[in-house]
Design goal:
There is one protein chain. A hairpin with a 2-residue loop joins strand 1 (69-74) and strand 2 (77-81). A five-stranded antiparallel beta sheet has the order 1-2-3-4-5, covered by helices on one side. It is of the alpha+beta class. It has three helices and eight strands, in the order H-E-E-E-E-E-E-E-H-E-H. The chain has one domain.
Length: 179
Amino acid sequence: MKLCGKNLGFTLIEIVLVTGLVAVIGVIAAQFMVNFFDSYQKSENTARVERAGRDLLRTFETEVRGAQMVNLVSSTEIRITNQSSEVWSLRLINKNCATEGNNFVSFSQESGGVFLEEPLTPTDSLGGVNVTHLQFVETGGSITLAATLTSACGLPDTARFKVSASFNAEVRPRSVYND
Protein backbone atom coordinates (compact mmCIF):
# COMPACT_ATOMS: atom_id res chain seq x y z
CA MET A 1 0.00 0.00 0.00
CA LYS A 2 1.40 3.29 -1.04
CA LEU A 3 0.49 6.61 0.50
CA CYS A 4 0.83 9.48 -1.82
CA GLY A 5 1.67 12.92 -0.52
CA LYS A 6 0.95 12.13 3.13
CA ASN A 7 3.54 12.59 5.90
CA LEU A 8 3.77 9.84 8.47
CA GLY A 9 4.55 10.62 12.12
CA PHE A 10 3.59 13.04 14.82
CA THR A 11 3.78 16.79 14.87
CA LEU A 12 5.82 18.62 17.48
CA ILE A 13 2.64 19.86 19.18
CA GLU A 14 1.33 16.29 19.56
CA ILE A 15 4.62 15.10 21.08
CA VAL A 16 4.73 18.03 23.55
CA LEU A 17 1.10 17.46 24.60
CA VAL A 18 1.58 13.73 25.16
CA THR A 19 4.84 14.33 27.08
CA GLY A 20 3.10 16.92 29.28
CA LEU A 21 0.15 14.59 29.90
CA VAL A 22 2.45 11.70 30.84
CA ALA A 23 4.40 14.02 33.20
CA VAL A 24 1.20 15.16 34.96
CA ILE A 25 0.01 11.55 35.36
CA GLY A 26 3.48 10.60 36.68
CA VAL A 27 3.45 13.40 39.29
CA ILE A 28 -0.03 12.39 40.47
CA ALA A 29 0.99 8.73 40.70
CA ALA A 30 4.19 9.63 42.58
CA GLN A 31 2.23 11.75 45.09
CA PHE A 32 -0.22 8.88 45.59
CA MET A 33 2.67 6.48 46.28
CA VAL A 34 4.34 8.89 48.73
CA ASN A 35 1.05 9.30 50.64
CA PHE A 36 0.54 5.54 50.66
CA PHE A 37 4.01 4.86 52.11
CA ASP A 38 3.68 7.72 54.64
CA SER A 39 0.38 6.26 55.86
CA TYR A 40 1.95 2.83 56.11
CA GLN A 41 4.91 4.15 58.14
CA LYS A 42 2.65 6.10 60.50
CA SER A 43 0.39 3.07 61.06
CA GLU A 44 3.45 0.87 61.72
CA ASN A 45 4.68 3.36 64.33
CA THR A 46 1.22 3.55 65.92
CA ALA A 47 1.00 -0.25 66.14
CA ARG A 48 4.53 -0.46 67.63
CA VAL A 49 3.77 2.17 70.31
CA GLU A 50 0.40 0.63 71.20
CA ARG A 51 1.86 -2.88 71.38
CA ALA A 52 4.67 -1.71 73.68
CA GLY A 53 2.15 0.16 75.87
CA ARG A 54 -0.13 -2.88 76.18
CA ASP A 55 2.86 -5.11 77.03
CA LEU A 56 3.98 -2.62 79.69
CA LEU A 57 0.50 -2.47 81.24
CA ARG A 58 0.12 -6.26 81.15
CA THR A 59 3.42 -6.80 82.97
CA PHE A 60 2.66 -4.03 85.48
CA GLU A 61 -0.80 -5.41 86.25
CA THR A 62 0.36 -9.03 86.49
CA GLU A 63 3.36 -8.31 88.72
CA VAL A 64 1.63 -5.82 91.03
CA ARG A 65 -1.57 -7.87 91.35
CA GLY A 66 0.41 -10.99 92.31
CA ALA A 67 2.84 -9.15 94.59
CA GLN A 68 3.31 -9.91 98.24
CA MET A 69 4.38 -6.28 98.74
CA VAL A 70 4.84 -3.17 96.57
CA ASN A 71 6.98 -0.20 97.64
CA LEU A 72 6.96 3.15 95.89
CA VAL A 73 10.65 4.13 95.70
CA SER A 74 10.12 7.30 93.65
CA SER A 75 7.61 8.61 91.16
CA THR A 76 9.47 6.66 88.45
CA GLU A 77 10.30 3.43 90.35
CA ILE A 78 8.49 0.76 92.33
CA ARG A 79 9.87 -2.35 94.06
CA ILE A 80 7.80 -5.49 93.87
CA THR A 81 8.27 -8.41 96.26
CA ASN A 82 6.70 -11.48 94.65
CA GLN A 83 5.31 -14.60 96.35
CA SER A 84 8.79 -16.22 96.21
CA SER A 85 10.20 -13.21 98.15
CA GLU A 86 12.21 -12.07 95.11
CA VAL A 87 12.49 -8.30 94.84
CA TRP A 88 12.11 -6.73 91.38
CA SER A 89 12.25 -3.09 90.33
CA LEU A 90 10.11 -1.51 87.67
CA ARG A 91 11.63 1.85 86.70
CA LEU A 92 12.30 4.39 83.98
CA ILE A 93 15.79 4.43 82.47
CA ASN A 94 16.55 7.85 80.96
CA LYS A 95 18.84 8.08 77.95
CA ASN A 96 20.06 10.92 75.78
CA CYS A 97 17.96 10.38 72.68
CA ALA A 98 20.53 11.89 70.32
CA THR A 99 23.48 9.77 71.46
CA GLU A 100 22.28 6.82 73.56
CA GLY A 101 18.87 5.87 72.15
CA ASN A 102 15.41 5.64 73.64
CA ASN A 103 14.28 6.02 77.23
CA PHE A 104 12.84 2.69 78.35
CA VAL A 105 11.11 0.94 81.23
CA SER A 106 13.27 -1.63 82.96
CA PHE A 107 12.21 -4.69 84.94
CA SER A 108 15.23 -5.62 87.00
CA GLN A 109 16.40 -7.76 89.91
CA GLU A 110 19.57 -7.92 91.95
CA SER A 111 20.39 -11.54 92.65
CA GLY A 112 23.56 -12.66 94.40
CA GLY A 113 25.39 -9.44 93.53
CA VAL A 114 24.42 -9.73 89.86
CA PHE A 115 22.07 -7.11 88.48
CA LEU A 116 19.65 -8.61 85.96
CA GLU A 117 17.92 -5.99 83.83
CA GLU A 118 15.29 -6.65 81.21
CA PRO A 119 13.83 -3.82 79.12
CA LEU A 120 10.04 -3.96 79.04
CA THR A 121 9.80 -1.55 76.13
CA PRO A 122 11.74 -2.02 72.87
CA THR A 123 14.98 -0.02 73.06
CA ASP A 124 16.47 -0.02 69.56
CA SER A 125 16.63 3.45 68.04
CA LEU A 126 14.81 2.54 64.80
CA GLY A 127 12.29 -0.12 65.76
CA GLY A 128 11.70 0.64 69.41
CA VAL A 129 9.70 3.21 71.32
CA ASN A 130 10.70 6.13 73.48
CA VAL A 131 9.15 6.41 76.96
CA THR A 132 8.72 10.15 77.49
CA HIS A 133 6.80 9.92 80.77
CA LEU A 134 6.44 7.30 83.49
CA GLN A 135 4.86 7.93 86.86
CA PHE A 136 3.80 5.68 89.71
CA VAL A 137 1.36 6.92 92.35
CA GLU A 138 0.21 5.08 95.47
CA THR A 139 -3.30 5.80 96.72
CA GLY A 140 -5.27 3.83 99.25
CA GLY A 141 -3.34 0.60 98.69
CA SER A 142 -3.52 0.85 94.88
CA ILE A 143 -0.62 1.59 92.58
CA THR A 144 -1.34 3.68 89.49
CA LEU A 145 0.92 3.74 86.46
CA ALA A 146 0.76 6.58 83.93
CA ALA A 147 3.03 6.35 80.89
CA THR A 148 3.47 8.16 77.60
CA LEU A 149 5.24 6.37 74.77
CA THR A 150 6.30 7.88 71.44
CA SER A 151 7.93 6.73 68.24
CA ALA A 152 11.60 5.76 68.45
CA CYS A 153 13.89 8.79 68.50
CA GLY A 154 16.21 7.37 65.84
CA LEU A 155 13.62 7.18 63.07
CA PRO A 156 14.49 9.20 59.98
CA ASP A 157 12.14 12.14 59.39
CA THR A 158 10.79 11.63 62.93
CA ALA A 159 8.52 14.67 63.01
CA ARG A 160 6.52 13.46 60.03
CA PHE A 161 5.94 9.99 61.47
CA LYS A 162 5.76 10.91 65.18
CA VAL A 163 3.21 8.94 67.16
CA SER A 164 2.40 9.35 70.84
CA ALA A 165 0.07 7.40 73.13
CA SER A 166 -0.73 7.52 76.84
CA PHE A 167 -1.42 4.49 79.00
CA ASN A 168 -2.88 4.28 82.51
CA ALA A 169 -3.65 1.45 84.90
CA GLU A 170 -4.57 1.18 88.56
CA VAL A 171 -3.91 -2.10 90.36
CA ARG A 172 -4.27 -3.37 93.92
CA PRO A 173 -1.68 -5.89 95.07
CA ARG A 174 -3.06 -9.22 96.29
CA SER A 175 -1.67 -8.46 99.75
CA VAL A 176 -4.16 -5.56 100.08
CA TYR A 177 -7.06 -8.00 99.64
CA ASN A 178 -5.58 -10.42 102.18
CA ASP A 179 -5.28 -7.77 104.92
